[in-house]
Design goal:
By secondary structure, this protein is α/β, with parallel strands linked by helices. The strands form 5 sheets. The chain has a 5-stranded mixed beta sheet with strand order 2-1-3-13-4. The radius of gyration is 23 Å and the shape is globular.
């Protein structure tokens, strides 16, 4: 078992380095000139344009090139030649439709955050993929630092606005302003425990008996005896604010503050019995050999789930959970561990943003590209699956990714599920499944509340850094059960020293004010 300070040093070394890039890289709001960007200036303003069915709502015929950055989750090291081939195929298809060309930058997940931040700092990005959970470049940070374009007035003039339901724009807005174009997928948040199916069969586990986390302990003992490296794989993820959604609305996606749904009030979750319960359980599992130190030190990779080294992990519930078997290249089975909830951030789990340094012509080009991407199956398939015959084939009209495919993305981080071709194994009624999923989710009592941290921003950043030292370790089994109470107390003391009580009071005041118009 690593000591808390040793773990803190390892975790903070990476986090602080990335944070430094963010601090220097995302603050610019300057608009690029023609000489800065080397791209076309607009010939009409947003006020002078009117929407039309083609999505090309400007009268200019000049071609505009945009730089697109996206995170590669399914391939550890993207093949640059194949990415270029996909880029060229996309450009050949869209050029005469919307007068837009793209420069496609497909970047490995391990490098994406730092490289995207650096590119933002150097005004090299026009359109980028991001999310509210991705470290150092998440949606809150981008808005706070003025790094993304306010699209509120432009959006209604483009086809992308009608390509996804109107409620998405309200749910994803910041103080009534739209900075992001969400990928249209599930709009609710919930979590499952995920089991390798071959192990379920081998040991004859009855998954119907699993109602809580503790119920999987006999299974973890089987996996330890088998000699698996990761009986329970945390995927180097702090899970308290995910596993305890039924009790709390973690409006800022931080585990130390939330709305208690029973109390309808903002609370300090570290003082709750649920937090001590979870940290103790994780510490106990680690002491028994169920959780590896690799997860605590972030040594596991995003492709570990594609190996045979793990037995049980977690999965974000989606309308078609069968897609996990495709993503992880092995059959898995799911057990619900939380309900599904509509919350303020559920539309921001995968989204696009346009850099604030873009010219009007570049912004318009990005919106035209997205409008086509979200409505045109040919473009959606190219952008997501790559080139037919190389990266995928078709069986009965459905996409089958090839084993040798050098370009590989998933629907959730690419476009709208309504535009994509179905993949082999996906149900014919997939789109209807998404509608049912979204309509059937519970609405959190705090749905719509978005905490404005402006008055406590520096203190909040400091508390998040303290989480990286204490909270992440506690939630990944880095502290033995007997030491958990003392470390939580130490954690709380460090938070309070950084101004946590001021943050708590500010959030409580804002929430009470919001409740008046809820």
């Amino acid at each position: 078992m690593l000591k808390i300070k040793e773990l803190g040093k390892k975790i903070l070394a990476v986090t602080l380095a990335a944070a430094m890039l963010t601090a220097t890289g995302c603050g610019s709001n300057n608009t690029k000139t023609t000489s800065d960007s080397g791209k076309n200036e607009p010939t009409a303003t947003a006020a002078e344009t009117t929407p039309d069915s083609s999505g090309d709502n400007t009268s200019d015929t000049a071609m505009t090139t945009i730089s697109v950055y996206r995170d590669s989750f399914n391939i550890g090291a993207p093949d640059t030649k194949q990415v270029k081939a996909v880029q060229d195929a996309i450009n050949a298809y869209i050029g005469d439709k919307i007068n837009v060309q793209i420069e496609l930058n497909d970047i490995s997940n391990s490098e994406y955050k730092d490289r995207a931040n650096l590119a933002l700092a150097n005004s090299e990005i026009d359109l980028l993929w991001t999310a509210n959970w991705i470290e150092t470049i998440r949606t809150d940070d981008l808005v706070k630092q003025g790094a993304v374009y306010d699209l509120t007035e432009k959006l209604p003039n483009f086809d992308i606005y009608k390509a996804i339901p109107e409620w998405v724009w309200g749910s994803s807005a910041y103080n009534g302003k739209n900075y992001f174009i969400p990928c249209y997928k599930e709009s609710a948040e919930g979590y499952n425990l995920m089991f390798r199916k071959d192990l379920v069969t081998k040991y004859g586990w009855d998954l119907s008996t699993v109602k809580t986390l503790k119920d999987i302990e006999p299974m973890l003992e089987d996996l330890k005896a088998e000699g698996l490296k990761y009986p329970y794989l945390t995927q180097k993820t702090a899970m308290f604010f995910r596993y305890y959604l039924n009790k709390f609305d973690f409006f800022s996606q931080d585990s130390f503050i939330a709305v208690d749904k029973d109390q309808d009030a903002v609370v300090n979750t570290l003082a709750s019995p649920e937090y001590a319960e979870f940290a103790t359980l994780m510490g106990d599992w680690a002491a028994k050999g169920y959780i590896s130190e690799d997860d605590v030190t972030k040594a596991t990779t995003d492709t570990t789930t594609q190996t045979q080294d793990w037995g049980i992990s977690w999965w974000t519930d989606v309308p078609n959970n069968a897609e996990a078997s495709t993503r992880y290249k092995q059959d898995v089975e799911m057990v619900k561990i939380t309900d599904n909830w509509k919350q303020s951030n559920t539309t921001l789990g995968s989204t696009y943003a346009i850099a604030s340094t873009c010219t009007d012509a570049e912004v318009d080009a990005c919106l035209k590209f997205l409008g086509l991407l979200y409505t045109d199956t040919t473009l959606a398939d190219l952008y997501t699956f790559g080139i037919e015959g190389t990266d995928y084939t078709r069986e009965d009209g459905k996409v089958k990714k090839t084993d040798a495919g050098l370009y590989n993305h998933s629907a959730w981080e690419s476009t709208s599920v309504t535009a994509l071709s179905l993949e082999v194994g996906e149900p014919d009624n997939k789109v209807e499944m998404y509608t049912t999923f979204n309509d059937g989710a519970k609405s959190s009592i705090a749905n719509g509340f978005r905490f404005d941290k402006s008055n406590v921003d520096a203190k909040y950043v400091a508390c998040q850094q303290i989480f990286n030292e204490f909270g992440f370790t506690l939630e990944n089994g880095g502290i033995s059960p007997k030491e958990v109470p003392g470390v939580i107390a130490e954690y709380q003391k460090a938070l309070d020293g950084a101004g946590f009580q001021d943050i708590l009071k500010e959030a409580q005041a804002q929430y009470e004010e919001w409740k008046k118009v809820r």
